[in-house]
Amino acid sequence: MRADDLILFSQVFELGSFSKVAEQNNLTNSVVSKRIARLEEQAGVQLLYRTTRKLTLTEAGRALLQGAKNVKQATQEAVDSVSGFGERVTGHIKMSVPTISGDLLLAQAVAEFCNMHPGLTVDMSLDNRFVDLVDGGYDLVIRTGYLEDSSLIARHIIDSQWVVCASPEYIARYSKPQSPNDLLTHNCLQYAYQTTGASEWEFKGSKKNKIIRVTGNFSTDNATALRKAALGGYGIAYMPRCLVYHDLNSGDLIDLFPEQVGKRLGIYAVYPFTRQPPKKVKLLIEHIKTRYLENAHYF
Hints:
Blueprint: H1 3-15, H2 18-24, H3 29-43, E1 48-50, E2 55-57, H4 59-82, E3 91-97, H5 99-116, E4 120-126, H6 133-136, E5 140-144, E6 152-166, H7 168-174, E7 188-191, E8 200-203, E9 210-213, E10 219-220, H8 223-231, E11 236-240, H9 245-250, E12 254-255, E13 264-272, H10 279-294
Parallel strand pairs: 3-4, 3-5, 7-10, 7-11
Antiparallel strand pairs: 1-2, 5-13, 6-11, 6-12, 6-13, 8-9
Helix pairs in contact: 1-3, 1-4, 2-3, 5-10
Family: Belongs to the LysR transcriptional regulatory family.
InterPro entries: LysR-type_TF_proteobact-type (IPR058163), LysR_HTH_N (IPR000847), LysR_subst-bd (IPR005119), WH-like_DNA-bd_sf (IPR036388), WH_DNA-bd_sf (IPR036390)
Protein name: LysR family transcriptional regulator
């Protein structure tokens, strides 16, 4: 069935006559009639009872109506989602982003967006805390991990793969672990900012992912500090690949289990629940997503 025929069918129910539908869509009555007949032929059943006074849905027509309404609503929402994209963007946006994303690409992407729209100002804080959007007055937050608050809307941007890595100096001194279980005998540097415990490192298993509970003498909630400790040869680190992408390429850090690490978290644009977010927020999300996808190799 064609989506435009389903939309036309829902309009026939709403307006109650072929002539009103024809007038609204700048069609002739015969075209409307032929398209409804085509829909009935494709469905294999009669959808409408036609009399000189009114149109009535058959049982099959009532069953199809909700689906037709859904198609119409989805089409309208698709149009609404891009409405105003060519208009001037003004106002203010308050947002919060994680430190890794902010340092890596968001600071530049958001500053670029402000430059593209001179009437707009953005207040962007870099914070690893899961801030309260409503109480904090935030229009937009970039989050990594899982969203549990049903009063918020999350739009997926990209997935972030984690790695287990160490410097060549550390490996030369303490040997390279051959399997994740070998980590139990190594000094594991722990990143306290994660949804699971800092000492619980996730790896792929044959049926489901498994957790290795590691130990170590250094823990931090600052990703930059964790990276520096790993580069200094003080232990093995478990962190997002985007943070150490250049270090891995240069050989300053070694990816120890490139195909085995099971942790892969989504990065989301999150905003308070509304039918449609403000145009300025929609545009900023689109801009941010474009910049993330241009740098997908980091993740």
